[in-house]
Structure formats: C-alpha cells, structure tokens
Amino acid sequence: MTKGIVLAGGTGSRLSPVTRAVSKQLLPVYDKPMIYYPLTTLMLAGVHEILLISTPTDLPGFQRLLGDGSHLGLEISYAEQPRPNGLAEAFIIGADHVRGGPSALVLGDNIFHGPSFGSTLRRSVRRISSGETGCVLFGYPVRDPERYGVGEADADGRLISIEEKPERPRSDRAITGLYLYDEQVVDIAANITPSARGELEITDINRTYLDKGRAALQDLGRGFAWLDTGTHESLIDAGQYVRTLENRQGVRIACIEEVALRMSFIDAEQCRRLGEEQSGSGYGEYVVEVAARHSAGAEA
C-alpha cells in the first residue's frame, strides 16, 4: 500500500511578513487552506496513510485543522523538520512511515489540477507497485525551463536526463513537486550527502533512479494546471485560477470532503455531517449538496 508525505516546512520567507504569524501552507488559496490542495492530490492517488512534516512552530496549526484525519477516512500523523535541510530529508524524517513499500511525496505549496488527474496518479502508482519502474516524476511544459529542474524522456516515457536550471534545456518539461518512489527511496535518501548549499537534494534521489534506469517521467501535458504558491504574485494567481473555475463550473477544486467521498474513504452520511459542521459558509453548503447528490445517485 502506498503511503504519502506532505512536506509543509520551510520559513515562507518570500511571503513575509504574513508568514511570520502563520504557516504558508495554512494561508487561503481562494476558499480553502493551501494544504488542502496537496493533501487531496495524495488522496486522489488512493493514499490514505499520510505523514505531514512541518516546523515545530507550525505543526499545532495543522493538527487543529486536520486532526488525525479519521473524519475523512485518513490516518494523518505528524513529524517535525526544525530547519529546511532539503526535500530529500522528508524520507529520513519519514523513514519509519514509508519503509517497506511505495511512497508519494508532495510539496505543500504545489497545486495540481486537470482532466483525469486522479486516474493518471493511480496508474503511476500501479507502475511503482508492479515493479515496472522505481520512480515516477511529473513533467509540466513551461515557457522558461531554464528556471527549473528539467526532465527529458524517451518515446516510452523513460527518464533519460535531469538538469538543474540548465542554460540550454534539452526539454521544456519542468519537474513538479510530486514524486512517487518504490521502497528503495529510504535507503537512497539515507546515503546522499548535502549539496554545496548544505541541503539534501531531491534531485540526487532522482538521479540515483535515473542511473539505474528505473525512473519515468509522466507528462502532465496541455490543459493541465500546475501552480506554485511561493510568492505573493503566484498566491494571488492561484486564488484567481481557483475562483474562476469554481464560479464558472459550480464545483470546488480540492474539496477534501468531496474527494474523500469520491474515493470511498467516507460515505455520504459522514460527508453530510462534515458539511453541516461548516454550514455557516458556502463551502459547507457545497459539501452538504455533494453528499445529497451522491445519495440520490446511489438510490437511482
């Protein structure tokens, strides 16, 4: 069974002074906390055992918001990352959580949204679980790949190169903040050394799989949205994106209760109760409506 990690640490310095008082990942992206977006990404992959890693100061806020996750059919646990020592440290801090099976890591400030995303995720998880590959990265076409880590794949989707902010990119596929690995990732992470900037780099994990011929690049492609909410401007852009889609389509992106219901982590009655607990908001009313529609569909 695949287990998940949400890495929601860091200082959020680019969003200062707001983040002097609250974790970046607890800030709203339009109508819900930022953390709902990566959390529902893991849920859509079929993951319900999730470790949330954050700073000692910020962890109590996440615990107040999410609890142990049982109301959503999840098992949420928490761990501290006192200092931002690199993304790969998530697999050292979370070694006991993910050891012995596949795992998924998502960054707490990354938003993914697009058609058939859930089925793409679950298909990628099956590739790991079956042993077809040991690592699946997700590539997103960008106009300025020289600003990102860039992946290149062959015609079969096998990763053949990774470059960090290359002057002459071999591809326009930026590597996003979502990573799937087999059980070897814990040992790989334990044996990498800090980079010149003193961090344990996720790229070093990815290169290890690449060197073994065990890495794949899943192209998210056109019509998909990958948003990073690390600056004031990108946070506003993400909120406007969510607002536009939700108002036009009448649905809510990353509604955690709706995703739990769709994934059969909870039933319609539990979804309805969760909505009624938030009945003073449009969000809560939407959750109640989702539960009612689900019940009506089941009875039809």
TrEMBL record:
Keyword Repressor: no
EC numbers, comma separated: 2.7.7.24
Catalytic activity: dTTP + alpha-D-glucose 1-phosphate + H(+) = dTDP-alpha-D-glucose + diphosphate
Gene Ontology molecular function: any one: glucose-1-phosphate thymidylyltransferase activity
EC supergroup of this enzyme: transferase
Cofactor: Mg(2+)
Alphabetical list of InterPro entries matching this protein: G1P_thy_trans_s, NTP_transferase_dom, Nucleotide-diphossugar_trans
Keywords: Magnesium, Metal-binding, Nucleotidyltransferase, Transferase
Pfam family, one: NTP_transferase
Transferase found in the keyword field: yes
Domain Nucleotidyl transferase residue range list: 3-241
Highest taxon in the source lineage: Bacteria
Entries under NCBIfam families matching the protein: rmlA
Family of the protein in this entry: Belongs to the glucose-1-phosphate thymidylyltransferase family.
Function description: Catalyzes the formation of dTDP-glucose, from dTTP and glucose 1-phosphate, as well as its pyrophosphorolysis.
PANTHER family: GLUCOSE-1-PHOSPHATE THYMIDYLYLTRANSFERASE (PTHR43532), GLUCOSE-1-PHOSPHATE THYMIDYLYLTRANSFERASE 1 (PTHR43532:SF1)
Protein name as it appears in the record: Glucose-1-phosphate thymidylyltransferase
Lineage, opening ranks: Bacteria, Bacillati, Actinomycetota, Actinomycetes, Pseudonocardiales
Name of the gene: rfbA
